[in-house]
Amino acid sequence: MRKSPTLASAILSRSLTSASGAVHRRFLQAALYGSSSGSGCRHGSRRWFSSLLDSLGGSSSRAASLGLAGAVCAAAAVTSFSQVVYAKEPPPPEVVPKDVVLYQYEACPFCNKVKAFLDYYDIPYKVVEVNPLSKKEIKWSDYKKVPILVVDGEQLVDSSVIIDKMGEKILQGRKANVDTEEDEEKKWRRWVDSHLVHVLSPNIYRNTSEALESFDYITSNGNFSFTQRITVKYAGAAAMYFVSKNLKKKYNITDERQALYDAAETWVDALNGREFLGGSKPNLADLAVFGVLRPIRYLRSGKDMVERTRIGEWYMRMENTVGDSARIKA
């Protein structure tokens, strides 16, 4: 996965020379999954990006039995406790939509935010992976970004709006009992969209090896043909390495890793000793933070974040609470 910069440069040069201008422009735009503003994966920084493209042209059996029995009892006790504190919250069957389809990019933080909501509330959904180059899977929609969620035939767009509308449908009577709790939730959901997402791209594309690692994940999970997968991995990684430098300037980030660590610590401070921002169970802000961090968790940047900040315990609680995906086969 970690190829040499020389190899990446050679493949990039050949790819850009042979491909048409329009095609490699869209290859590289596809790399901007997680660097957009707002709550949808759009292709931001178009003006700067266009200029970049132009310039690129276990004793005895009894003891063992007792030990096993003790372990089983302990495990049962822990499981029982965790179910009480960290259980999912499936809504009443009568309010669960019959048909939910998510049009997404697997690596998009905004799409993962929607999936965290659907998974936690155990709403079955199908996934259509959109090819970011042709976008043929969403030709039918006037909205040309992801995520798009189609709920019983109704199109919902923009991740935060999708979650708000889905909440209205399935979380009747579950709103915060105190106004200040609801205000806190809204405040941190806005923070996710206005700040947290913007420190991700400069981190996952921080250097050539991390950019290649990120694009290996993107192309392995995305909807690409074999040829597109190879071209996008190397050309995209090379381009996004340079794009990440521009994003640092745009969002006034001096040290991208420190900015990520600071964001993680800011979130832990907001918890103020609570298991979740929502108290004994996650609220929409918890789900939003978890969702956008999920794509990077096992990349180098995500591992560094967990190792060097206090966010690891909360993330593990969220991982256990959100649990298995509610995704079903299309």
UniProtKB/TrEMBL annotation:
Residue ranges constituting the GST N-terminal domain according to the UniProt record: 98-174
Gene Ontology CC annotations of this record: endomembrane system; mitochondrion
PROSITE patterns to which the protein is assigned, alphabetical: GLUTAREDOXIN_1 (PS00195), GLUTAREDOXIN_2 (PS51354), GST_NTER (PS50404)
Gene Ontology BP, a term: fatty acid biosynthetic process
CDD domains, per the entry: GST_C_mPGES2, GST_N_mPGES2
UniProt KW keywords: Fatty acid biosynthesis, Fatty acid metabolism, Isomerase, Lipid biosynthesis, Lipid metabolism, Membrane, Prostaglandin biosynthesis, Prostaglandin metabolism, Transmembrane, Transmembrane helix
Catalytic activity: prostaglandin H2 = prostaglandin E2; prostaglandin H2 = (12S)-hydroxy-(5Z,8E,10E)-heptadecatrienoate + malonaldehyde
Pathway(s) it belongs to: Lipid metabolism; prostaglandin biosynthesis
Descriptive protein name: Prostaglandin E synthase 2
Organism of provenance: Trapa incisa
Organism lineage string: Eukaryota, Viridiplantae, Streptophyta, Embryophyta, Tracheophyta
